Amino acid sequence: MSTPVTADLGIIGSGSGNSLITPFWEDKRVVLADKGTGSTGAFGGTCLNVGCIPTKMFVRPSALARGPEEAAKVDVGLKLHSVDWPTMRDRIFSRVDAISEGGRSYRDVELENVELLSQKVTLAPDLLSRRRESGRFAFTAEDGTSAETEQLVIAAGSRPVKPQVPGVDLPQVHTSDSIMRIEDLPQRVLILGGGYIACEFAGIFSGLGSEVIQVNRSLGLMSVLDEDIQKAYSAEAEKNWTVLYQRTLGAVVERQEGGVGEHPGVTAQLVTSDGREEDYDVDLVLVAIGRRPNTDLVGAEEAGLDLESDGRLVVDDYQRVLAQGEPVEGLYALGDISSEAQLKHVANHEARVVAHNLENPQRLRTSRHQAVPSAIFSYPEMAQVGLTEAQASERIGGQNITTKVQNYGDTAYGWAMEDSYGIFKIIADRRDGTILGAHAMGYQSSNLIQPIVQAMSFGQDAHTVARGQFWIHPALMEVVENALLGLEVPIPEDAPL
Ligand SMILES: Cc1cc2nc3c(=O)[nH]c(=O)nc-3n(C[C@H](O)[C@H](O)[C@H](O)COP(=O)(O)OP(=O)(O)OC[C@H]3O[C@@H](n4cnc5c(N)ncnc54)[C@H](O)[C@@H]3O)c2cc1C
Ligand SMILES: NC(=O)c1ccc[n+]([C@@H]2O[C@H](COP(=O)([O-])OP(=O)(O)OC[C@H]3O[C@@H](n4cnc5c(N)ncnc54)[C@H](O)[C@@H]3O)[C@@H](O)[C@H]2O)c1
């Protein structure tokens, strides 16, 4: 057996984990292990290579391709000439791949204190007893290279779940890991799932001109959102592409014709909730039914670490990993492998906390998971923060909440847009004006929600936010101002006017 690589810090995962290598470690040794992400085995994790960044780089051209539809509402005739998928794809990935490669070579070649293990690694099954005896954490790579480190961070992320059905491993069945690199735009695509990823890709492909069939197991899309947004979005999606509910994928069978590039099309065999079978001939299938934490890939359970019921690592407020209910000193986790919210801004925040705690073990800081917003960059776009109306009613009693749903179309900028569907909903405690949540669907809702995130983060009440500042007239942000003003909350005598 070869001599283990020894280091002060070990990191498993080069996504958000990559940012832990701060100047503090310059005169110390770091081992960074990453097996590679997506169909190209890229460095730098999900967000950069197969997640947030490339998806939004496809959302933008897709939104522009909807230009004629939007322009027609305001009496302008536009014509879409072409959508050049191969050029678009290559432009997007030439940027993404260059950043990924730059990141790899910076870590691997330029930083002398960092050893990069471009392999899948597994925690030593006797991780905890060895740590007690030697003071070090141990893990091993597939080629037998082993590493021992004083502190260790598990930032190994999550991966797409695939249903175990016949044909699911055909090359025409994609996940978000591979779909963005396909050779050409499909004419007809079936998307399985009704959550973030399915709704974003349904928006992308339908905007670019593909015929989209979205299939969800439950009734309605985006079931995690507030009911008003969920219903409004489902109704819009049903107008924009085909949406089928209460069905799932039974099998995928290769056909002779259709398809994209070298692969022929497939028949997606769906099974309805009452047991009927329905066949859809499509060019390809995208499966987007959730992501599972990579705890199995790192051997977390075998190493004696505690797991949540959904397979995530259990961490305390300092992001320390728990074993038998107790935090293991020097062992941290962050991002999708331990976080309830699989969101990049959450992983980044946790990484800042872990970076601090690694460098200051005597002054540990806690992570914060209140007022975590998210946006779904579909068509229409959606955004949310805080409690849904149902959750707020359960938390403080329905009689104590006040809500306002502001239509974009009832504001000046909404008139300019001829907007017919945008809504912004705020939920507050009617007793003291505390903002409990906000939920929106419509143009730029991911930006419009930020003042509410700010108010919730800094504890500002609804009336103070509405009247304690100027709102630019007649900007679209007046949607938010009007939603705040529509809440029935107490207004103190000396409140700003
Ligand atoms: C299609 C898509 C779109 C998204 N869009 C958004 C968005 O718009 N906004 C948003 O906030 N979030 C979005 N997300 C979620 C976001 O990408 C993730 O929450 C975030 O990237 C998680 O970061 P992480 O550091 O935890 O994991 P990752 O970035 O996945 O990093 C984990 C790394 O660990 C490596 N690894 C795993 N196991 C091992 C092992 N045993 N040995 C060695 N290496 C290993 C992996 O290869 C990977 O590189 C999106 C996700 C997807 C899939
Ligand atoms: N914009 C963003 O912030 C963004 C974008 C993409 C992904 N993400 C993150 O990635 C996570 C994973 O995304 P996701 O969309 O894969 O999962 P998800 O949990 O958001 O949605 C899964 C969906 O698949 C459906 N489903 C599950 N099994 C099914 C089956 N067998 N047949 C048909 N439908 C089925 C569920 O009803 C649900 O609608 C998200 O929860 C989110 O945290 C975030």
* Number of helical segments with 4 or more residues: 14
What is the CA-CA span between the terminal residues? 75 Å
Structural class: alpha/beta
The average pLDDT score comes to 97
Strands, count: 23
Quaternary structure annotation: single chain
Spatial shape = globular
| Poorly predicted ranges | none
CATH class of the largest domain: Alpha Beta
CATH topology of the largest domain: FAD/NAD(P)-binding domain
* Fraction of helical residues: 25-40%
Bound molecules: flavin-adenine dinucleotide, nicotinamide-adenine-dinucleotide
> Architecture of the largest domain in CATH?
3-Layer(bba) Sandwich
Radius of gyration: 25 Å
Strand content: 15-25%
CATH superfamily of the largest domain: FAD/NAD(P)-binding domain
The biggest sheet amounts to:
8 strands, mixed
Tally of domains: 3
Domain Pyridine nucleotide-disulphide oxidoreductase dimerisation: 372-483
Cofactor: FAD
Pfam family, one: Pyr_redox_2
InterPro entries: Class-I_Pyr_Nuc-Dis_Oxidored, FAD/NAD-bd_sf, FAD/NAD-binding_dom, FAD/NAD-linked_Rdtase_dimer_sf, Pyr_nuc-diS_OxRdtase, Pyr_nucl-diS_OxRdtase_dimer, Pyr_OxRdtase_I_AS
Supply database-style keywords.
497 residues; FAD/NAD(P)-binding domain; Enolase-like, domain 1; eight-stranded mixed β-sheet; five-stranded parallel β-sheet; 29% helix; binds nicotinamide-adenine-dinucleotide; Pyr_nuc-diS_OxRdtase; disulfide bond; mycothione reductase [NAD(P)H] activity; Pyr_OxRdtase_I_AS
